[in-house]
């Protein structure tokens, strides 16, 4: 896909311009955001957070991570994740949650999935992070039960709703739930954690535990209409991530193929959407530029063999100034699919008269 034309840019710019208040910094965002869970003190309790059938332990969770400088990361030997796992990264993900809600205009679900929330549904949130999505949805749908599932214990307990629980575990080692347990299984922003092979394993587990719908939200890092500096940095970073971690940062085609090739699914719906990068897109574009820039900076540990940290940060600043100048945009997507659940035939007992 080529760069957007000037008419489209003007239309998008008018659509987003002056629609939202722009925060000057992340502290202001955090102070004014009622869903700021990253700054909440975190603790974990085997009684209140991890169910009895969880196969993960806190000791196992701690073994998966290491500290480099003042940042916390996963051990590459155990977990494939290109981003840190600390409060700074959680704040970025929570800002991403706010951006996602505004991007999809408060409706993160494709229309067919909405029917799930008209019943007392059970919902599983894969890779829940701080739990912000589950907690947000739990308040909106108090009749539904939400389970957040992640490999690290970053869930806030102090603000936990009564219809939310959290569990530790690694989906690539299997989900600790029976077949057809959840009406909806939701997954978002997992492209930095999964290889193409991992997606197959992950989606098989998601499909297994779902009884009705699965829904996946993510983005393809394409940087359409970006200038030469941004494109060069993108290619160098993405090539290094693929070589070092086998991670593809443009996952939409992988996910679609996995779902379309699975004979347990029907009614597959795919929708992609242009998102402006930069001030020309109003608050939405400004948020996305800051989220992408923040994410790229947090990638340094994963691509440190390419540049010194000083050189890397300089390249980032130049590239994102260019993206803002060129009125660039990116593609985000959501995809849902309905599971075909075979009903067992009811066998009537035949009673013969003597």
TrEMBL record:
Gene3D superfamilies: Vaccinia Virus protein VP39 (3.40.50.150). GO terms for biological process: methylation. The keyword Transferase applies. InterPro entries: Methyltransf_25, SAM-dependent_MTases_sf. Keywords: Methyltransferase, Transferase. Residues 123-209 form the Methyltransferase domain. The keyword rRNA-binding does not apply. This is S-adenosyl-L-methionine-dependent methyltransferase. GO terms for molecular function: methyltransferase activity.
């Amino acid at each position: 896909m080529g760069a957007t034309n000037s008419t489209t840019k003007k239309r998008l710019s008018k659509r987003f311009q002056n629609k939202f208040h722009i925060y000057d910094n992340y502290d202001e965002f955090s102070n004014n955001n009622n869903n700021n869970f990253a700054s909440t003190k975190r603790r974990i309790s085997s009684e209140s957070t991890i169910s009895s059938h969880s196969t993960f332990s806190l000791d196992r969770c701690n073994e998966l991570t290491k500290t480099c400088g003042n940042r916390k990361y996963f051990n590459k030997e155990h977990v494939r994740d290109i981003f840190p796992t600390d409060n700074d990264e959680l704040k970025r993900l929570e800002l991403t949650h706010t951006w996602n809600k505004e991007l999809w205009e408060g409706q993160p679900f494709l229309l067919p999935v909405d029917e799930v929330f008209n019943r007392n549904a059970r919902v599983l949130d894969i890779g829940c992070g701080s739990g912000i999505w589950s907690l947000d949805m739990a308040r909106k749908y108090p009749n539904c039960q939400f389970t957040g599932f992640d490999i690290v214990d970053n869930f806030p307990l102090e603000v936990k709703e009564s219809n939310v629980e959290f569990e530790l575990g690694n989906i690539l080692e299997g989900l600790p739930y029976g077949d057809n347990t959840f009406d909806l299984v939701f997954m978002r922003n997992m492209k930095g954690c999964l290889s193409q092979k991992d997606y197959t394993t992950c989606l098989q587990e998601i499909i297994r535990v779902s009884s009705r719908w699965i829904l996946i939200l993510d983005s393809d890092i394409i940087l359409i209409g970006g200038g030469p500096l941004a494109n060069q940095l993108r290619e160098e970073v993405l090539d290094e991530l693929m070589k070092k971690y086998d991670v593809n940062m443009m996952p939409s085609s992988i996910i679609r193929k996995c779902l379309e090739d699975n004979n347990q699914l029907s009614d597959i719906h795919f929708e992609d959407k242009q998102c402006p990068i930069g001030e020309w897109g109003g608050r939405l574009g400004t948020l996305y530029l800051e989220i992408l820039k923040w994410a790229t900076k947090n990638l340094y540990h994963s691509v440190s063999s390419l540049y010194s940290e000083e050189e890397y940060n300089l390249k980032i600043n130049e590239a994102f100034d260019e993206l803002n100048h060129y009125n660039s945009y990116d593609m985000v997507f959501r995809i849902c699919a309905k599971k075909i659940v075979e009903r067992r035939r009811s066998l009537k007992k035949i009673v013969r008269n003597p």
